[in-house]
Structure formats: C-alpha cells, structure tokens
C-alpha cells in the first residue's frame, strides 16, 4: 500500500515548517509506503526553499511540485495527477497533526469497503472568543474549520473538510477531480471544492468513514477573529453555495436573475441586524446579510440573462 499526503501551500513559508515537522513525526506501519507531496501554488516567498530543505533532509519522504496556475483546486488536482499512490490524503499548510493521524485516517482504505475517510479538525484558540461571537451556534464556528461529527467511528453522512480527508485514488478516476471554479484562489474567499467532491461521492452511493482518532489541529489566527475577515468569509461562502449548487429554482419569481425569496431574506435579516441590541445576535444577523449578499451577487452573475450579455459583449470585443 502506498499513501501520498498532498499538502498544498501558498505564501506561508513562515508557518509551513511547523506543519511539515508534525507530518515527519507520523507513526505508520513499516510495511506501508508513504510520501508527502508539497504542491507550491505559485508562491512568491521562500516556500520552495523551505520544501527543498525538507526534501534534502528526508529524500525518500518529501517531494516538491510547482503548480503555477493559481487556485487551491488546481494545486490539489496537480497533486492527484502527480501521485502514484493507492490512497491520497489531504491536509492544510497551517495545521499540526497527531503522530497517529495519517495511519488512523487511511487504514480503512486498504480495501474497497470505503471510498474515503475523514477525521476531526479541532481549532486551536490563541485568544478567547470575542463577546459578539456565540460558541453555542455551530454556524458561528464554521470559518474556523471545526469538524467533529461525534466521538465514535461511523459512516459519514456529510462531506469532509479538506484539512483532514483521504480517498482511494480510483475515486478521482471514477468521479473526476476538484472543480476549479470553486476553492481558494489567492485572496478570493470562494470555497466548497472539498465538500462538493465529498457530496459527489455520497450522491454516487459511495461510503465514507468518520474516524475520530485521526486528529488535525487548526490554529485560529488572530486576524480570523476580526469582523472584517469573518464577513468576507461569509460573503465568499454565499457565493460558493450558489457556484456549487446553482441558482435555486424552487421559486417562480426572479429579479435580475435573483430568486425573489433571497432578496426578501436579505431585507428581513438587515432589519434584524439593525435592531438587535445583543452583540452576538447583532453580528449573527450581519453575517447572514453578508452571506445573502454573496448569494445574490453569484446568482446575478450566473443568471442566463447576465451570462448572455457577457457573451455578447465578448463577441463585440473580438
């Protein structure tokens, strides 16, 4: 059995060594071959030098791959194409992993009983949550990459997160690779490329396993606890939902390609945001407004009328 851990990175040379050092400490059975393929997504810092240092120190363990086209999905897809492994694992460049993480995540994929697996992603809080964030609302914690469906191993009924997931390589041959219109691209906050692929497998009847003993720790940077970052995240999430699932068709009424019920929700949540006195309820309303605003923008951009105008303008320019 050969496992390839695909770790994509972009301009994080300062924190990347911590993630790679935690991976080096992985405890894997001696009969299992495994490697770390670091995909550099066109970084402009010293990322290449950092990775090549690990390649020199651990020549049979690390490989470097440059993907010059910007975008997390493109980087992951480049890693998939480059890998020669039976099982592909994925994590992020800002995490630390338990020594037993890689094997606990992938052990069940030795045979065809499972198509993929996911483990826990636990946030590491450097600072206490601000008073305007409610820890009781799981939606409030979504931007911090928390994933913990339970404490027992079981069949996974929801798509996994890219920080802690693995699939048999044949799943990519059967269902395709990650969508390049989704996923982070430089400073763009689009996402859902990981959950969309997982949902593709679930819709195809494949079985995914949840393994709570496969633990990844995801630090919460100070800037991610700021309203500006979180609102940008929710705006991108609104765009991502429409980009992944398409414009909702369960309504008869549209306004400039936008389902009218989304506009009504925007008005309703704007009012709730404006009149709320409690700080957490006020921010909860505000982040819903940003989410709906992102949904509205993506609906408008993807509506047939708008796309038709864009094509016509393009034809004129040509």
Notes on the structure:
This protein has 318 residues and is of the alpha/beta class. It has 2 domains: 2-222, Spore Coat Polysaccharide Biosynthesis Protein SpsA, Chain A; 226-305. It has helices at residues 16-24, 47-57, 72-82, 101-106, 170-175, 193-203, 227-245, 260-275, 279-302, 304-317, and strands spanning 2-9, 33-40, 62-66, 87-91, 96-97, 116-125, 154-156, 165-168, 208-220, 254-255, 258-259. It is globular, with a radius of gyration of 21 Å. The termini are far apart. The relative contact order is 0.12.
Strand content: 15-25%
Q: How many distinct domains?
A: 2
What is the CATH architecture annotation of the largest domain?
Alpha-Beta Complex
Distance between the termini: 52 Å
SS-based class: alpha/beta
Topology:
Blueprint: E1 2-9, H1 16-24, E2 33-40, H2 47-57, E3 62-66, H3 72-82, E4 87-91, E5 96-97, H4 101-106, E6 116-125, E7 154-156, E8 165-168, H5 170-175, H6 193-203, E9 208-220, H7 227-245, E10 254-255, E11 258-259, H8 260-275, H9 279-302, H10 304-317
Parallel strand pairs: 1-2, 1-4, 2-3, 6-9
Antiparallel strand pairs: 4-8, 5-9, 6-8, 7-9, 10-11
Summarize the structure.
The protein is an alpha/beta fold and 318 residues long. 40% of the residues lie in helices and 19% in strands.
């Amino acid at each position: 059995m050969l496992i390839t851990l695909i770790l994509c990175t972009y301009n994080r040379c300062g924190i990347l060594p911590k993630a790679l050092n935690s991976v080096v400490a992985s405890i894997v059975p001696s009969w299992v071959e495994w490697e770390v393929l670091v995909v550099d997504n066109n970084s402009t810092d010293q990322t290449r030098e950092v990775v090549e240092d690990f390649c020199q120190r651990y020549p049979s363990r690390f490989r470097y791959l440059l993907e010059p086209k910007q975008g997390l999905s493109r980087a992951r897809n480049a890693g998939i194409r480059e890998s020669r492994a039976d099982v592909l694992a994925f994590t992020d460049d800002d995490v630390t992993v338990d020594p037993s993480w890689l094997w606990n995540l992938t052990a069940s994929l030795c045979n065809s009983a499972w198509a993929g697996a996911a483990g826990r992603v636990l946030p590491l809080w450097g600072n206490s949550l601000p008073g305007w964030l409610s820890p009781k609302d799981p939606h409030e914690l979504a931007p911090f990459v928390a994933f913990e469906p339970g404490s027992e191993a079981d069949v996974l009924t929801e798509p996994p997160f890219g920080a802690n997931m693995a699939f048999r390589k044949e799943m990519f041959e059967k269902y395709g690779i990650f969508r390049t219109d989704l996923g982070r691209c430089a400073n763009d906050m689009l996402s859902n490329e990981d959950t969309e692929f997982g949902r593709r497998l679930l819709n195809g009847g494949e079985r995914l396993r949840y393994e709570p003993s496969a633990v990844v720790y995801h630090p919460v940077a100070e800037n991610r606890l700021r309203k500006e970052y979180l609102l940008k995240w929710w705006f991108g999430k609104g765009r991502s939902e429409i980009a992944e699932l398409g414009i909702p068709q369960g309504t008869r009424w549209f306004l400039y390609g936008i389902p009218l019920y989304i506009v009504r929700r925007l008005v309703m949540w704007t009012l709730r945001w404006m009149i709320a006195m409690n700080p957490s309820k006020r921010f909860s309303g505000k982040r819903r407004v940003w989410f709906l605003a992102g949904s509205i923008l993506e609906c408008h951009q993807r509506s047939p009328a708008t796309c038709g105008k864009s094509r016509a303008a393009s034809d004129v320019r040509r």
